[in-house]
Design brief:
mainly alpha; 2 strands; single chain; globular; two-stranded antiparallel sheet
Length: 153
């Protein structure tokens, strides 16, 4: 049922792409998106537990986001900081990618891939502190809902 995950991811991405920046997105919308995404990432239908996203897999990324959010300097270039966390997310995606042989076919399994698909357009819409704060709140909400819905530690 990976199509359910892809449908939800695509729905969220399409909504994100309607905005030029993140601070224009209502907090209520980001919470709703985080709820949907956290649930499907925690309970990926048809997936073995070993192929599901864990909090540990995104911890370094989340830590980088929180570190930037907690900067209290006037001259922080939030766009540059956001662009620099893209490679961290790409590294996590690459590190968690697995292949599995099913009925003679090699299938690529990536528990972090759907998260990256949603977060990348968000990162591309970060231009200032307000955008970054909305992004950080969104990431923290995804992790919270992931845990709420039984996501692995």
């Amino acid at each position: 049922m990976e199509t359910i995950v892809q449908e939800i991811v695509q729905e969220i991405v399409n909504k994100i792409k309607q905005y030029d920046n993140l601070h224009s997105v209502k907090a209520e919308d980001t919470v709703n998106w985080a709820d949907k995404l956290g649930e499907v990432l925690a309970q990926r239908p048809g997936e073995d537990k070993e192929n599901q996203l864990t909090k540990t897999q995104i911890r370094k990324f989340l830590d980088a986001v929180i570190r930037i959010k907690n900067l209290h300097k006037d001259n922080v270039d939030y766009r540059a900081q956001a662009m620099l966390i893209k490679p961290k997310l790409a590294y996590i995606v690459g590190k968690t990618k697995k292949s599995k042989r099913i009925k003679g076919e090699t299938i690529i399994i990536n528990p972090v891939g759907p998260l990256m698909e949603v977060l990348e357009p968000c990162i591309n819409r970060i231009y200032n502190k307000e955008d970054f704060e909305r992004f950080a709140d969104f990431v923290e909400a995804i992790v919270a809902y992931h845990k709420y819905y039984g996501g692995k530690d």
